[in-house]
Amino acid sequence: MKKIISLCLACVVLVSAFCSCSTKNANSGASSLRPNYDSIPLVESVLSGINSRNYPIIDGASFTEDLDKSIFNAVFPSQGSDSPRYPKTHSQTITSYYKLIDGTVDLILVQDPTEHVTSYAKQKNVDLEYVEIGNEALTFFTTQNNPQDNITQAQMQKVYSDNTITNWNQIGGQNKSIKIFAKNAGKHSQQMLIDDVLQAKSISNIFKDSSTNENLTIFNDVVNTYKDNSGYALGYTKYNFISQYMSTNTDKLKILKYNGLA
After folding, report:
1. How far apart are CA 156 and CA 199, in angstroms?
2. String of b and e for 231-255 (b: at least 16 CB within 10 Å)?
3. What is the C-alpha separation between 202 and 160, in angstroms, rounded?
4. Mean pLDDT lowest for which of 86-90, 201-205, 224-228, 240-244?
5. Which of 95, 100, 184, 220 is the most buried (most CB within 10 A)?
6. More confident residue, 101 or 209
7. Distance CA 211, CA 235 (A)
8. For residue range 141-180, what is the model confidence (pLDDT) as tens digits?
9. What is the per-residue DSSP string for the chain?
10. How far, in Å, CA of 43 to CA of 66, rounded?
């Protein structure tokens, strides 16, 4: 069995493991898809035995691109963004896992895998091994005009799994319907919701394939509910994404406390 070493960041409760993965044995059929750096200028790194030609090919989640660049800058302090080995735009979590399993990249900086990924790894006879390197939180958010400021795990389960909470007044808020938004199946934030919040419960089929793949789209969808006086929206995403969005859109969304914790 091929072994892939995944250096994974574990999640805290509402947290997703994010990994840097290396393949010990790449699929031979994927060799033509791997970039070849054998002919680029040879630049030694600060690490013994690592140079610009054998530096690992790294991919990962979009939110780990800055981490990837920081690693490169630390290993090659004399190089910059003009280097052919400078980190490229990441393929995002699911795609980068597939690339790792197929042997077209050496390391990935991602969260722990979804069921889709682990199933694919088994099909390819690849064993994934994880090493924790950091944390990423799952956050729940609503529109700024919603006076509600907290939601609990039990309430989230009744919203996204049982469908028995449909109005904000059922959790201490105003008599307004809950306009529920979800990420698409296969997106890691939905897997985080299932694993860390719903736990033994499954996400309702109503939401399993609903809403959107993209963070900006779900933010805009939630913001657009301002126009609907009948209800307030509820959505979820990783903290990194919403913090970036809110840095330039301070008056549109707010992050809810979870179990009373900000």
Report:
1. 11
2. bbbbbbbbbbbbeebbeeeeebbbb
3. 8
4. 224-228
5. 100
6. 101
7. 10
8. 999 999 999 999 999 999 999 889 999 999 999 999 999 8
9. -EEEEEEEEPP-TTB--EEEEEESS--GGGGGGS---TTSPP-B-SSTT-BTTTSPPEEE-GGGHHHHHHHHHHH-TT--TTSTTSPPPP--HHHHHHHHHHTS-SEEEEESPPHHHHHHHHHTTEEEEE------BEEEEEETT----EE-HHHHHIIIII----BGGGGTS-S-EEEE--BPTT-HHHHHIIIIIITTSPPPHHHHT-SBS-HHHHHHHHHGGGG-TTEEEEEEEEHHHHHHHHTT-TTTEEEPEETTB-
10. 22
Q: What strand order describes the sheet that includes 253-255? A: 177-180, 231-238, 138-143, 253-255
pTM of the model: 0.68
Residue with tokens 């007044």: 169
Residue type, 261: L
Residues 6+ apart with CB under 8 A from 6: 19, 20, 21, 22, 100, 108, 128, 129, 130, 131
